[in-house]
Write a structure and sequence with these properties.
The complex is a heterodimer of chains A (139) and B (145).
Chain A: H1 6-27, H2 33-39, H3 45-68, H4 81-97, H5 104-111, H6 115-138
Chain B: H1 2-21, H2 26-33, H3 42-61, H4 83-99, H5 103-108, H6 115-141
Classes of the chains: A mainly alpha (139), B mainly alpha (145).
């Protein structure tokens, strides 16, 4: 547990909570990232622009943080890219089929006390943990 | 136009939150999921922080008749726990564990110049398109009655 960082995790989480609050309060939207990403290709033009700027905002936020604290953490080195690609493909299929990801189900859905989201979150946490167990301790 | 500006601000705050919390650090994510190893529970605190804020704010906001800049709230129309939800969530979890990225961090990391993030985002879209193609194919075989 040497890398335990509860304070920055809690504060970062609170910022995410603030972000989803703003989007719901003003735009009436749940900030589910996989849905916003998918909507980039399947929305009428009026619904396309806010999705695009939201995703740009994500990138800009990460850039600002990287400028302010370039050595906050060390980027992962030498992880096989094919595993990233495989994981990404599964994330794409799974979030469409299950209608949401960590943000949509794990935060917005649970905050809204949606039973679907609570079950979805428990499910992806469990399969994520089983997957890492197999990859790190079995294979 | 205001809605677009709000989306930008919301996205920036989200990106800062993902960075500060290290959700965008795949090593951290995998150490969180690795409960039988040298477990790092930090990311549970990300969820706690996000839920502490949103659980309260959502209660207050959804009492209002409508959002500030829209005519109505856009909430999920689904309510039942069905097979696609659970199978989809299970597949998503496997992909999360294999890669160390969920969709938000994958997009945010494009800003840190990470090659992994680029591969991740392209693959997520490949998964979206595959799922859409597969769903349309199976619905042709089994037309809704």
């Amino acid at each position: 547990m040497e890398n335990f960082t509860p304070v920055s995790a809690l504060l970062g989480g609170a910022l995410i909570g603030l972000s989803v609050t703003i989007l719901l309060l003003f735009n009436g939207r749940m900030a589910g990232i996989s849905g916003i990403m998918n909507g980039l290709f399947y929305s009428p033009k009026s619904e396309y622009i806010w999705r695009f700027t939201f995703l740009c905002g994500l990138i800009i936020g990460a850039i600002i943080f990287k400028f302010g604290a370039p050595d906050f953490f060390v980027a992962r080195q030498d992880y096989p890219l094919w595993l990233v690609a495989l994981g990404g493909f599964l994330v794409g299929i799974g979030t469409r089929l299950g209608n949401g990801c960590t943000s949509g189900h794990g935060i917005c859905g649970i905050a809204n006390l949606s039973k679907r989201s609570i079950f979805a979150t428990l499910t992806f946490m469990l399969t994520g943990m089983i997957t890492v167990y197999i990859m790190r301790h079995v294979l | 136009m205001k809605k677009v500006f709000i989306a930008l601000i919301s996205g920036i705050i989200f990106g800062l939150g993902l960075s500060l919390s290290q959700m965008i650090n795949p090593n951290k994510v995998i150490n969180f999921l690795d409960i039988s190893g040298d477990w790092d529970p930090s990311l549970a605190f990300v969820m706690l922080g996000a839920l502490l804020v949103s659980f309260i704010s959502f209660r207050l906001i959804l009492k209002k008749p409508e959002p500030i800049l829209e005519e109505s709230f856009h909430l999920s129309k689904h309510s039942n726990i069905d097979k696609p939800l659970l199978v989809g969530a299970a597949i998503f979890g496997i992909g999360w564990g294999v890669s160390g990225y969920c969709p938000g961090p994958a997009v945010a990391n494009l800003g840190t110049g990470s090659l992994e993030a680029l591969v991740m985002v392209v693959s997520i879209y490949a998964g979206f398109f595959f799922q859409k193609w597969f769903a349309s194919r199976t619905s042709m075989k089994h037309p809704p009655s």
